[in-house]
Structure formats: C-alpha cells, structure tokens
Amino acid sequence: MSGGTAIASSYFLMTNSAGADPIKTRNYVLGVRTILVSAVSAGLLDRFARAAVLCSVLWCVSFGADQGGPLAASGALVTSEKPAVALNPVADAPRPFVKGDAVRITVSQDSLHFINGTYHIDDEGFVFLPVLGRVRVDTMPEKRLSMFLNSAYLQFLRYPTIQVQPLMRVSLLGGFVRPGLYYIPSSASLWDVVALAGGPQREDGMKKLAWERDGIVVNGSLLPIIQSGASLSTLGVRSGDLIRARQAPKRDGWEIFTTVVLPIIGVAVSAVSTSATLYYVYETYRGTR
After folding, report:
1. Per residue in 157-166, pLDDT tens?
2. Are 32 and 56 in contact (CB under 8 A)?
3. pLDDT of 187 higher than 60
4. Is the overall model pTM greater than 0.85, yes or no?
5. For residues 88 and 111, is the Cβ–Cβ distance under 8 A?
6. Which of 76, 191, 221, 254 is the one with CA 20 to 30 A from 270?
7. What is the pLDDT of residue 34?
8. At what angle do helices 3-16 and 22-42 cross, to 10 degrees?
9. Using an 8 Å Cβ cutoff, are 172 and 194 in contact?
C-alpha cells in the first residue's frame, strides 16, 4: 500500500465517520485496524502512510466516544470532555446530593451485596463508603456518581449495576404508630411518607396531619394532598420539614365511661361489698358469744 492510497483511505474514513453514527464509526475503526495490521505484517506500509492511518484511527475512536457510541459506552476510552469516571462537577447537570441528607446505593442484581445501604452525607459533602472510604458526592449528578461507583467497585461486582438515589430528611412526629426521622426520596408521595411511620394512631388522624417548617405550619390540612398522590418535590417539601399528627387519641362518651368511670364504680362497689361482708361476719361472731 502506497502513502497516497493510505491518505485517501484515511480521508474517506474521516469524512464518512462525521455522520454521528456510532455503528458506522465502530465498523470503520475495525476495518482500518484490520487493514493496518495486515499491511504492517506484510511490510507494505511506509512510515508516512502508517502515521496517516494511525491518525485517522485515533480520530475516529475519539469521535465515536464523543458521540456516545459503543466505544464510549464500554469505558474503553477516557477523553477530557466526557470522562468515563470523574469527580469533577458538570456545570449544567443537577446536583441532587445535599449536605446533611443521604444517598441510597443498591446493586440491582444482588440485594445482599455489602455495598447496599443508605449513607449519610456529612456537612462537607462526603459519604463514607466500604473499601473506598470518604468520597465527595455533593458535586456530582446521579449518573456521574453511578459511573464512578461502578468503576471503583468493578472488582467486587459480577455486573456493573450499581444505582444511586438521593434521599431527603423528613420528620414524622406525634401520634404516628412509628414516629421518627426518615430518609425519603423526593419522588415519593406524602402517602408513602405517612405509610413509613405506620399511619396515624387515631381513626381520624389523616384529617389532623400538619406540615410544619421551622416551627411554622405550612399546611394544616394534608388529606387532599395525600389523596392527590403528588410527589414531595412537586409539593415543595424541603429536607428537614416536619409532618405532625395529633397525639391524643379521640374518645367518645361511651369509651370514657367504659374505660374510666366504670372501673371506678366497680372498685367502689367491691369496697362497699367487702365492708358489708366483714361487718356481717363481725356481728354474727359477736352474737354467738
């Protein structure tokens, strides 16, 4: 193969790969690689032609990676614009991992994997992960963090299937079955939040729920919102907000009578009956003497 033929082939390769088709780009790269290896082994390439073909191959590989083609997806190439694994923030991507909140990490095909768990994000934006130690996450979007973890834990995974989910903090206090502080995804509904705490203790407790923020009641009637099924992000719920249920269970007159008054009457009747019995026994004993 002459230098002119190699240059012509390289030009054809570069112009045809500009169609932003990852499949075509891959096929061109594989074809040129085959030609290059055969020509080198046969001693048909001069130094100039070899350099020209090599440049075209590198150009096509970088082009396929930039277009999100198979080479980029496989992680075989890391470019400066779209690195497969990087901790640098992306300017236009959302950063859902907030200091003080948490991140849930799951291996989708292995529910018992040691990586699975909910990890608190400290006030510096770091989480402490098994094996890796402290990793900063508040500067990364979800996709970037997932890519990083799949790469970092590659030797511990059969398949790179790590998924991440940002979690926010919501407090459920008062008359719930299981009151406490919960990490909840912002995509969850208020119904999901109440269900985590086991629901209110009172039968009419759903009508008595209040949404508070910094000691101020944002909404004192949440039943219509619960019925709508809207997500927390849609409602504007922020991390640290409080959902409070009225604690004292409501009791009607009959319940009060049966649980409070009737036991007192029973004790009083028993005391009078016992006193009368003792008095009768005493009088009977005294009369027989």
Report:
1. 887 789 999 9
2. yes
3. yes
4. no
5. no
6. 254
7. 60
8. 170
9. yes
Q: Which letter does DSSP use for residue 219 in this model?
A: E
In the block, residue with structure tokens 């230098």? 3
Distance CA 118, CA 185 (A): 11
The pLDDT assigned to 82 comes to: 37
Q: Is the pLDDT of residue 156 over 80?
A: yes
**DSSP-assigned beta bridge partners for residue 107:** 162
Residue 37 has pLDDT above 50, yes or no: yes
Round to whole Å and give the CA distance between 204 and 200: 8
Helix (H, G, I), strand (E, B) or coil at 220: coil
Which residues, 6 or more positions from 248, have their beta carbon under 8 angstroms from its beta carbon?
Answer: 175
Architecture of domain 168-245: Roll (3.10)
> Is residue 185 within 8 Å of 160, Cβ to Cβ?
no
Identify the sign of the CA torsion 23, 147, 66, 138.
Answer: positive
**Angle subtended by helix axes 47-66 and 3-16, to nearest 10:** 10
Measured on CA atoms in the order 128, 129, 130, 132, is the torsion positive or negative? negative
Tokens 């100039």, residue?
48
How far apart are the C-alpha atoms of 17 and 23, rounded to whole Å? 10
Structure tokens at 189: 């509904």
Task: Extract the tokens encoding 202.
Answer: 């009172």
Sign of CA dihedral 186, 84, 88, 59: negative
C-alpha 128/C-alpha 4 separation (Å) is 58
